[in-house]
Each structure stands twice: as structure tokens, then as C-alpha cells.
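step=encode ok
step=design start
structure_in=
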């Protein structure tokens, strides 16, 4: 067990015996996996600080009123200043648009079309001549005051006057409708209880006019949002905030995983110590066992420092990935703390499974590799389910009980995760289909590995031959060939003897009997030894 990593624990399927106690067997096999998941997810989750709306300010988030993550962004909003209508309506672009249309009317009698009222043409003359319904006014489609107060615009650092007086936000309409709009949005105008369209008290705004107002408003906001989002999300400030937040969450998750591994080693060591004491021991014996377990567990964790750092690394990657994912989601919708936790748990499971499938640090066969990854994902899914159960507990009256509700929530979350983990592990471990599939995939992998080993052996032999002296090798081959030929050509024992003696001379072979065989054999104390 000392040399096995966390990944190898989920791959050690063994050969389950249906007659064994199924829960005892599963727990013995996957105890490390389940406990590590529960300890880190519910015992140490306080190390990670999830926030509503993610870890980085987004245009969508600040417009929703979510608390600013970067204090500089909050300070920029507070320093926006008061709305100055003269600055917005006195802008050169605004005045130029009016002057050009007025000049065309005065010189050529060209009237402008009302952007909101289909078919109505407007004049640049006194209201007494054409009435307020026929007199032209230049309207900010999205009200200038709304743009000035827009948190998204301020977050992007875009000047409000520039944005309000962009070409897509300026439209001509009649004076009556323009003044009735005021600083309200189109929807606020249309949702008023009473209207005075065209100056007629109580007259509702016609549907075709309402549709045109909504259409112009939609187009203007689309252009405006695109400019704001492009400016902000491509800015160095946003990218820096996202990177810093990802690193912070990565460190927090890394610490959570590493500390969880450390506590798990202490738990397992204490469990081992308790197995060695009897049920009727004194309290002093129990305390001594706990002390020994803590000491031994700490020692084991330090010995497995590589695995400790690996847990930190996996946690860092998972935390950073979860933070970036949360930031991306919050560009479009706002996430709560529980959603952030779901993303973190899913990221941790995906990173561990990816480590098994891609890096394969334990060199598992493909069948065991897939099974280990499946177990990791199943455990992660169980934790997410437990987190969801905890979220439901938050909505019950018992959660509001001081000093009790929080513990009830943690207990229920852990219980759901533990039971679901064991259920899924039993299914994966005892399923004939799963076991047959793993065996079939392993068989295929065995054949592949045999070819790999052969290739490695050929590579080794080629490397040895590369360093071999070819000239010497050829000379040795010729000498062996010559000796073989002479032995085959010998026709009697005397000739064979001469050939063999010459071989000993050629290859520097020492005779075991010295120079003379007869003298050697005449001495009974001599022993014939062949080296």
C-alpha cells in the first residue's frame, strides 16, 4: 500500500466473490477514494471561498447588482459623478446631426421620417405651425441618463457621452413622444398605466409604434452591449483579474486536496492502531492509539510527499479550471455559491479522470484505466448530489436553528454522498458486463504491450550493436567458420586432436590438465576441472 497512489486505489478491482459481504468488500477496496472525497468536499470546503456571481466582475454581473469583486471597479462606479444633461445633449455629434437635418429642411424642404411612428414625416419649424406631433426632435434611443448610470459601461471604462451619441443611438421622433419618454427606458414608457399618445389624454400607444420603439431599442442596446463587452473582455484588467482569481482558487483547491490527503493518512493510521486493541481496553490505551496513529499518519504523509504534491497539483488545476469556467458562465448568467461548488466538484473529478486517462501514472491496462476514471467520475457525481442535498437543507427551518442547522446540512450532504458513492461503486464493481468489458479491453492491451516490449528489446539490441566493433566481429566470425570447417573435414581421431589443440591456441583456451595429459592423469590427487 505504501507505493500505491490514489489512482491505483480506484483501479484495483480484484476478483469479487459474490459470497463475501458486499459492503465490507466494497469499503475495503474503495475506502481511500470515498473518504478522500468526503473529507475534502465537506470537511475542508471552507478553505475555498465561493462567491455569488463568480470570482471576476462581469458586465452581466454588475448590472444585476452583484457585489464588485475588484475594489477598483467599485471605486470607479462611485466616482461616476452626477448626470449632466447639458454634456450629453450639447455634444458636437448630437448638435451636428440636428444642424444637418435642419439645413436640409430649410434649403430643400426635406423632412425627416419619424423613427417610431411609421409613415410620419417631421419638420424643423415652430410647434405652433405643425404641433408637437409634427415637430422633429433628436432622441437618444437608450436614454442618456441610463447610459450614464450603467454599471456595465463604467466597468468597461467607456465615456458615457461618446456611447450615448453614437450613430446607432440617435433617432428622430416627434417632440410629443420624445418628451413623454423623458429618461425612462422604452419598456418603462410602454408599461405605464396611462398614455397620452399624440397629446390625446388616455390614448394608448399603438401597437405598430410600440413595436418600432422596441425594435430600435433592441438594435441600439445590441450595438452598445457589443462595444461594452468587446472593450471590457479584451482589456488587460479583465484578463489579469481572471488570471489572479484562477490562481487564488487553484491554490485554495490545491490546499484542500493536499490537506485532505494528509488527514486521510492520519485516519487510516488511527484505524490501523484501533484494530490492534481489544474492546475492553482502558481509555488510556485508546488515547495512546490515537497519538500513535496521528504520529504514524503524519509520517506516512511526509513519506508520500510526491503524492501529496500531486494532490496539490490536481487541486490547483481543478480550482483554476473551475474559476475560469465560472467566470465564463457569469458573462451570460449569474451563478450562486452552490453552482460554483458544483463546478468545482465537477472540475476536480474531471481533472482526476483526465490524469488517469491521459497521463496514466500507474501504467494501468486500458480496461482498468477506464474503470478507474469511471469510479472517479461516479464519486464526483455523488459529491455533487450531496452538495445539492445540502442546498435543499438550507431552505428548511432546521437550517436556521443556531449551532445546529449547519451541522445537519453537512451530515445530510455527507450521508447522501457516501451512500450514493457506495451504491455506484457496488454497481461498477459487481456488474458482470463491466467486469467482462474490462477483461476484454485488458486482453487487447496485453497484446499491444507485448509488441511494445518487443520493440523496446529490438531498440536495446540495436543500441548495443551500434557500439560493436564490426571489423573485430567479422574476424571472429571468420575464425569460427575456419574452425568449424576444419572439424568437419577431420577424417580420424589424430587429426581431430590436432584441430582441437590448435583451437585452444587460437582462442587462448587454457588446458585443464596443463601441458601433458598423461602426467596429469598419473597423479591421483589431481582433479579435472572445466571452467
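sequence_out=
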Amino acid at each position: 500500500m505504501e507505493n500505491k497512489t490514489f489512482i491505483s486505489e480506484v483501479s484495483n478491482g480484484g476478483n469479487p466473490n459474490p459470497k463475501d459481504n458486499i459492503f465490507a468488500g466494497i469499503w475495503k477496496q474503495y475506502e481511500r477514494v470515498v473518504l478522500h472525497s468526503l473529507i475534502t468536499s465537506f470537511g475542508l470546503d471552507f478553505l475555498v471561498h465561493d462567491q455569488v456571481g463568480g470570482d471576476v466582475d462581469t458586465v452581466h454581473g454588475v448590472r444585476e447588482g452583484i457585489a464588485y469583486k475588484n475594489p477598483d471597479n467599485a471605486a470607479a462606479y462611485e466616482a461616476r459623478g452626477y448626470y449632466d444633461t447639458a454634456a450629453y445633449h450639447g455634444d458636437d455629434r448630437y448638435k451636428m446631426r440636428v444642424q444637418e437635418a435642419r439645413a436640409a429642411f430649410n434649403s430643400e424642404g426635406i423632412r425627416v421620417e419619424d423613427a417610431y411612428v411609421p409613415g410620419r414625416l417631421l419638420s424643423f419649424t415652430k410647434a405652433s405651425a405643425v404641433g408637437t406631433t409634427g415637430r422633429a426632435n433628436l432622441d437618444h434611443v437608450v436614454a442618456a441618463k441610463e447610459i450614464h448610470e450603467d454599471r456595465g459601461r463604467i466597468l468597461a471604462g467607456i465615456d458615457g457621452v461618446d456611447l450615448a451619441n453614437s450613430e446607432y443611438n440617435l433617432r428622430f421622433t416627434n417632440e410629443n413622444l420624445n418628451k413623454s419618454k423623458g429618461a425612462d427606458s422604452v419598456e418603462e414608457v410602454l408599461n405605464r398605466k396611462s398614455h397620452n399618445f399624440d397629446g390625446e389624454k388616455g390614448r394608448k400607444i399603438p401597437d405598430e409604434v410600440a413595436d418600432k420603439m422596441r425594435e430600435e431599442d433592441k438594435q441600439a442596446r445590441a450595438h452598445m452591449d457589443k462595444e461594452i463587452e468587446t472593450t471590457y473582455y479584451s482589456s488587460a484588467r479583465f484578463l489579469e483579474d481572471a488570471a489572479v482569481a484562477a490562481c487564488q482558487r487553484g491554490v485554495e483547491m490545491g490546499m484542500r486536496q493536499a490537506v485532505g490527503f494528509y488527514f486521510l493518512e492520519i485516519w487510516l493510521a488511527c484505524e490501523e492502531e484501533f484494530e490492534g486493541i481489544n474492546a475492553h481496553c482502558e481509555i488510556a490505551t485508546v488515547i495512546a492509539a490515537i497519538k500513535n496513529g496521528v504520529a504514524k499518519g503524519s509520517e506516512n504523509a511526509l513519506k508520500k510527499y510526491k503524492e501529496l504534491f500531486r494532490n496539490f497539483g490536481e487541486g490547483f488545476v481543478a480550482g483554476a479550471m473551475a474559476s475560469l469556467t465560472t467566470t465564463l458562465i457569469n458573462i451570460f448568467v449569474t451563478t450562486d455559491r452552490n453552482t460554483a461548488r458544483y463546478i468545482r466538484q465537477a472540475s476536480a473529478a474531471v481533472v482526476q479522470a483526465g490524469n488517469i486517462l491521459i497521463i496514466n501514472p500507474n501504467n494501468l491496462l486500458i480496461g482498468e484505466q477506464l474503470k478507474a476514471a469511471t469510479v472517479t467520475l461516479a464519486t464526483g457525481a455523488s459529491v455533487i448530489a450531496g452538495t445539492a442535498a445540502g442546498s435543499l437543507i438550507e431552505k428548511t427551518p432546521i437550517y436556521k436553528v443556531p449551532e445546529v442547522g449547519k451541522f445537519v446540512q453537512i451530515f445530510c450532504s455527507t450521508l447522501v454522498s457516501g451512500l450514493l458513492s457506495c451504491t455506484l461503486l457496488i454497481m461498477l464493481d459487481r456488474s458482470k458486463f463491466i467486469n467482462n468489458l474490462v477483461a476484454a479491453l485488458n486482453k487487447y492491451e496485453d497484446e499491444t504491450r507485448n509488441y511494445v516490449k518487443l520493440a523496446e528489446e529490438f531498440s536495446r539490441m540495436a543500441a548495443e550493436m551500434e557500439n560493436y566493433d564490426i571489423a573485430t566481429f567479422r574476424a571472429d566470425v571468420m575464425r569460427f567458420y575456419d574452425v568449424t570447417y576444419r572439424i568437419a573435414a577431420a577424417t580420424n581421431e589424430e587429426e581431430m586432436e590436432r584441430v582441437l589443440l590448435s583451437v585452444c591456441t587460437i582462442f587462448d583456451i587454457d588446458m585443464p590438465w596443463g601441458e601433458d595429459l598423461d602426467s596429469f592423469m598419473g597423479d591421483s590427487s589431481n582433479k579435472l576441472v572445466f571452467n
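step=design ok
step=annotate ok -> The first strand starts at residue 112 and ends at 113.
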